[in-house]
Amino acid sequence: MSAVFISHAVADEALATLFTDFLKEAIGVPSDAIFCSSVPGHGIPLTVDFNAYMKDRIQNPKLVILLMTPSYLESPFCMMELGAAWAKSHRTLPIVVPPVAFSTVTKTLGLVQAWDITNHAGLVEFRAAVRDTGINLENRTEQDWDRKRTEWRQRSKKTIDKLKGVTSVSMSEHEVVLAELDQVKADARDLESQLDTASETIEKLKNAKDAVEVKAIMRETSGDNGLEDTFNQLLAEVKASFPKDTSNAVRRHIVMDHYGKAAKIDWNNSDFQDALERNLFALDDGAVVWSGQKLSRLGKALSAIDKFLDSSDGAEFVGMQEDDVPFEADDRDFWKHHLNL
């Protein structure tokens, strides 16, 4: 009868093999004292009935080791082995393999002390736990122990990183994800609606002939939402108009160029090199290419902000705000405050 029963998932054969070798070579557990069904020499002999042999081996081991990986928790057969160990009150050592949480042990075995396999300091306590079982261990020197423990640290991480991940989730987790997805879709629809409204407003402002017409457009757009909603819609359009995958530094430079206040470009900054390669800046002098397709929408959005702030409605809106909030669009602090540029 094997003294150590290693319960593991078939998908975790590599980890089970590494662990079996560590028991033998580092701690001195005799080879014939270990049962691990996936490891040659420690598993089930040919011609033997699998189920009967497994039942026999789980009867009276001195220690049951559970390699609790994602694959282990999804295996019905592993759950039967865990249940057998619990029902027979065997001395059981759960070894938690991330991303499995310690709370899983409490849910399955109660308040049993477990070991996180990535906590290498726990190897000392693990060796002590094996010794306490009374297994007749083969002699291993401290030099053997230190060498094998160092080897374990190196090899175990690589092995764990290659383990199969979770392939299913619980119904409750599934329902939470679906609810979150529905909320994301609703938020996206709302944002699309706001951007559509902002785009329509920008087009109207672009074609406005004078301040009176601008004011009328603002009144029409505001409706029951007020001037603040109009301002926020215009800001949202500016944010949506920036070319994708550009950094804040590049966006800030482009905006300040719109107001004739752009600083000298630091071409050692890879973000500006990337923007140059994407035709946002001219190759000869580094000027912002406002006439290009990628910045046309942004130019219109910035002009719409300017028209709003220059209108009587804009002045009324600014007058209702706190004194320390910047509302001069040609001031860098304005864009830092409102769009975190």
From TrEMBL:
The lineage of its organism: Bacteria, Pseudomonadati, Pseudomonadota, Alphaproteobacteria, Acetobacterales. SUPFAM superfamilies: Toll/Interleukin receptor TIR domain. Pfam families: TIR_2. The keyword Transcription does not apply. It comes from the Bacteria. This is TIR domain-containing protein. Gene3D superfamilies: Toll/interleukin-1 receptor homology (TIR) domain (3.40.50.10140). It comes from Neoroseomonas terrae. The keyword Metal-binding does not apply. Keywords: Coiled coil. Residues 174-215 form a coiled coil. Residues 1-134 form the TIR domain.
